[in-house]
Amino acid sequence: MNPIQIIERAKYIGVSLHLTDKHSIRFKGESQAINEVMPLLQTHKAKIIEWLEFCDLYEFLVPKKQWTDADHQWWCKDLIEQPKLTIDCLRALQNAYEAGRAMTNEDMQ
Questions:
Q1: Could you tell me which residue, 23 or 75, shows the higher pLDDT?
Q2: Are 52 and 44 in contact (CB under 8 A)?
Q3: Which sign, positive or negative, has the C-alpha torsion 18, 38, 6, 51?
Q4: CA separation for the pair 109, 89 (Å, rounded)
Q5: pLDDT band of 33, cuts 50, 70, 90
Q6: Cβ–Cβ under 8 Å, residues 83 and 50
Q7: CB 87 within 8 A of CB 50
Q8: Nearest 10 degrees: CA dihedral of 83, 85, 86, 88?
Q9: In the predicted model, what is the mean pLDDT of the chain?
Q10: HSE, side-chain direction, 13 A CA sphere, residue 74
Q11: CB atoms within 10 A of CB 12
């Protein structure tokens, strides 16, 4: 299973997944459902964290940048092909937006 399928599976059985400030996965749901999805979460933890971070950053930026469904597809493709660079770019865009200016090289750090 890929990370999106795992996240969707968790949601389907009543487990919500969120990224914590410390970049770990926080989950809520009934014990039986959590126990069912836990092996998948443990096996694919790093990729799930990437997708959760991507989702948080993208959801922050989409209304500000007025991105479309096509943009989402391209960002997802980029995430699959170059996860670190994609997340770094989204994080830099968020930093620049929060500072109220255009993106600079410093935002990429």
A1: 75
A2: no
A3: positive
A4: 10
A5: very high
A6: yes
A7: yes
A8: 120
A9: 93
A10: 6
A11: 10
- Quick check: 56 and 84 in contact, CB under 8 A? no
Q: Please give the Cα distance from 33 to 6 (Å, whole number).
A: 13
102 has pLDDT over 90: no
Neighbours of 33 (CB within 10 A): 16
Written as one letter, the residue type at 95 is: N
Q: Which two tokens stand for residue 87?
A: 């997340």
Check the CA dihedral 90-64-25-80 and report its sign.
negative
Residues 17, 9: Cα–Cα separation, whole Å = 11
- In one-letter notation, the amino acid at residue 27 is F
3-state secondary structure labels for all residues of 12-44? HCCCEEEECCCCCEEEECCHHHHHHHHHHHHHC
**Cα(51)–Cα(91) distance, integer angstroms:** 13
